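Budget justification, computational time. The allocation requested in the original proposal was used primarily to generate structure tokens for proteins on the priority list. As evidence of use, we reproduce two of the resulting records. The first is shown immediately below.
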Amino acid sequence: MEKQQLTIKISPIVYHQLKSDVGKGKISEFIEGLVVRELGSSEKKIEQEYRECYANPRMIKEAKQWEKAEIKSWLNYEKNKSKPATVKWSKKLIKNGRKIN
């Protein structure tokens, strides 16, 4: 996974303590671990949201309705994708505010 660079300012005392306790080449990994632990992992958040959703009967019903709508939409797309798009033209065209036959 590609990493993003983040620049932070910390006091020289904290930096020297990090360097001596964690090691110069391991500071980024150490800080990332602390941040993930503090914010919580996104996988755990998603798991918790699914648990809350499936504990609520109204949410289950709504999720099933969305699922059906997506399936119908996909089936209609598959059925019609080989057909060329058609455009119906009106018999009466308007040009400069006047009707033309």
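The second record produced under the same allocation is shown here.
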Amino acid sequence: MKKYEKIINDLILKIQTGIFKEGEQLYTEKEIKEIYNVSSTTAVRVLNELETAGYIFRIQGKGSFVNKTLVNKKVLVTENNNFHKHFKESVSEHAEVVEAEIIQDKELCNKLKLKNQKLLKVARIKYIGNIAWAHQTNYIPLKYLPDVNINDIDSFKELATMIRKKYRIDIHQEKSEKTLQVIVDTPEEIAKFITNEPCFEFDRYTYFADGKIFEYVKIYINYKYYSLTIKD
């Protein structure tokens, strides 16, 4: 392990054990140089790495301070669609398939950690009543869905249900990972379906128990219809 990595680990341990508490000032660049006997370059790198990782924030002219961090911390995450704020309870949800095809795409295969293979691509618009609130595209290696009939458009409206019934793969029971970001400029090809307002953009991966990726999903949700609550 390199010297700067040892220093980072030591400072992270000091933060995690409460030696440096939330909001307290961390060592300055000069103090890191003196305490750990390193150069200015190493001290600056240590502080930059800690800031990038979310452990500290820096105020020009004042120094570096311990951030409230959720790194490696167990938290309770609750996702909400906020429908109750905008619609009556009697309004129902449904999906429409806008695209179902077999494709070959090297970049998508890389995301799925596969060599160039055929993929099933299913793009859907999700509605609550007559309001489109989400655009979702699933990419699934064709080898997991033998004999899938892309002409049976209706079967893709409830994609997870079809996969569970026909292939005995319950997507909702498998492990998944999701990342999200807020985007102001919604891609034109998505905005024409749902909204030209800000959106949450999601990248989701669903995994088999052995760690192999079953699917990659790209989702856009109108900002009005999604919220995320995090409790530590």
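A brief technical remark on that second record: The longest helix spans residues 3-16.
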